[in-house]
Amino acid sequence: MAVSARMFTETMSRTPAPVTVATTTTRDGRSWGFTASSFCSLSLDPPLVLLCLARDAGSHTAFTQAGVFLVNVLAAEHAHLARHFATRGGEKVATSEFEPCEKGLPGLHEAAARVACSTYDILAGGDHSIIVGLVEDTHIGDRPPLAYCDRTFARPVPVPAATTTGVIP
C-alpha cells in the first residue's frame, strides 16, 4: 500500500530536524541561499554531509553548479532567517545579515555552527537532489541551535537523567 503525500508529510513533521540556511556564490558573483532541514552527517572518513534541495527550487542550478557551499546551522533566535530563506524568488542573501565566512561564502557569524564544503557528489532523490559535501572547514558557535518539529520552531531542551525506576520525571 502506498502512503499518501499528506500522511507522509504529517508523519515526517513529527521528526525533529535541524534548521539551516545553505549558501553559495556562483561564478558570476551572485549569492544564493535556501532553508534546509534535510541536513545531516554522512561519513567520518572522508568527512561528508548531505543536504537536499528541491529540483524546482530557484537556487537549484546555483547549488548544483557552484562546486562549494556553506551550511549555517541557525541559532535559536534565527527563526526569522529560516522563514526568509524558505520563500521563493528574490535576492535573499543581499537583504540579510550574512557576511563572508569560510571559503568566502555568505555566512552568519552568530550561527550555532557552520560547515563549509566542496561538492563531492549530487544524487537523484525523487523530486529533490541530494547534495553531498566534503567538509573542508567548520566553525562552532556558542549559541544553542534552532530545531523544527510539529511544524514549529523550537530549542532543544536537555532531558533529565532517568531515575532508578527508569522513568523520566
TrEMBL record:
Q: Does the keyword Ribonucleoprotein apply?
A: no
Give GO terms: molecular function aspect only. Answer: FMN binding; riboflavin reductase (NADPH) activity
Please give the InterPro entries that the UniProt record associates with this protein.
Answer: Flavin_Rdtase-like_dom (IPR002563), NADH-dep_flavin_reductase (IPR050268), Split_barrel_FMN-bd (IPR012349)
Q: Which domain of life is it from?
A: Bacteria
Name one process (GO BP) from the record.
Answer: pyrimidine nucleobase catabolic process
UniProt keyword terms in alphabetical order: Oxidoreductase
What name does the UniProt record give this protein? Oxygenase-like protein
What is the protein's species of origin? Streptomyces lincolnensis
